[in-house]
Amino acid sequence: MNKRWISCDIDGILNDYPECWLDYLADRCGVRYPNVHEAKNGETFYKEYKNDYRRSAFKANLPVDSTGAELVRRLAGRGYGIIMATSRPLNHPSYPGLYELTRNWLLKNDIPFDTLLFKNSTVDFLDLYPDVELHIEDELKYAQAVAGRGIPVYLYAKHLKPGERVTEGITLVDNLFDILEYVD
Question: The whole model's pTM is what?
Answer without folding.
Answer: 0.94
